[in-house]
Design brief:
Elements: H1 9-17, E1 21-24, E2 31-32, H2 39-52, H3 61-65, H4 69-79, H5 84-101, E3 105-106, H6 110-119, E4 123-127, H7 132-142, H8 145-148, E5 152-153, H9 167-176, E6 183-187, H10 190-199, E7 203-206, H11 210-219, E8 224-225, H12 229-239
Parallel strand pairs: 1-4, 1-6, 4-5, 6-7, 7-8
Antiparallel strand pairs: 2-3
Helix pairs in contact: 1-12, 2-4, 4-5, 5-7, 6-12
Organism: Streptomyces griseoincarnatus
Keywords: Hydrolase
GO molecular function: hydrolase activity
């Protein structure tokens, strides 16, 4: 495993120089979406909404106790795939994400990294399990939408395609006409790494704390940074900016 403290600058530079297309997970590498609007509370609210309609039987114990709203959403979709209930639950989650976007906290160095990578000629896309509506709103608020649009690939009502399924990664590659070997994905969860690996895309892990580093390492990620600052430096050096 190569973490930020062990990463050789040349290793990072080589990874970056091979990337003509950069696929970003959204919540984590770009911003902390739920920095001011608790994801745990959103998950509990979804569970309470289901229980208030007598539908608690759709969730097993792990889903009921989950602190991740996507776990709740997936659990219901497994029982009733493509149903009106799933569509309503997904829309409720989207509305909560839109509220969260207003208080989302930019990941340190993400904004200048996005702009710098764009300036040196890389093409960027978002590949996320969050709603693309939320991504568009946040990027617009930061003046970053032109760096990514129209390549925003997020959650649809076909929830079986959420990462770790490589569907959103493959959608991005196909739309951009890019071979997997010419792309790089930046993500902060095992599902990001597994989606990239399934699509054949090189992966750079971003882990803002030791816990996230550990889970990425256990998933098999080999290059992980604890800050985007060395990535920004490497992109500037590669592009001579």
């Amino acid at each position: 495993m190569t973490t930020e403290t062990e990463t050789e600058p040349n290793d990072l530079r080589n990874l970056i120089e091979g990337a003509r297309v950069v696929l970003w997970d959204f919540d984590g590498p770009v911003c902390r979406l739920f920095a001011g609007h608790s994801a745990e509370r959103v998950a509990r609210d979804l569970v309470d909404w289901l229980e208030g309609r007598g539908l608690h039987g759709l969730l097993d114990e792990p889903a009921r106790e989950s602190l991740d709203p996507h776990v709740v959403l997936r659990a219901v979709d497994r029982r009733h795939p493509g149903s009106d209930l799933v569509a309503e639950l997904e829309e409720r989650l989207t509305q909560e994400e839109l509220k969260a976007a207003a208080s989302a906290r930019p990941t340190p160095y993400a904004d200048p990294l996005v702009r710098t990578w764009t300036a040196v000629g890389a093409r960027l896309a978002i590949t996320t399990n969050n709603s693309p509506r939320v991504v568009k709103e946040y990027l617009t608020s930061r003046g970053l939408l032109p760096c990514f649009a129209p390549h925003l690939y997020g959650r649809t009502q076909e929830l079986r395609y959420l990462k770790p399924h490589p569907h959103c990664v493959q959608r991005a590659l196909n739309a951009m006409g890019a071979a997997p070997s010419t792309a790089l994905m930046i993500g902060d969860t095992p599902s990001d790494f597994l989606a990239a690996r399934a699509a054949g895309v090189p992966f750079l892990g971003y882990a803002r704390n030791e816990r996230k580093t550990k889970v990425l390492e256990e998933a098999g990620a080999e290059m992980i940074v604890g800050s985007l600052e060395p990535v920004l430096k490497a992109v500037r050096e590669a592009g001579q900016l």
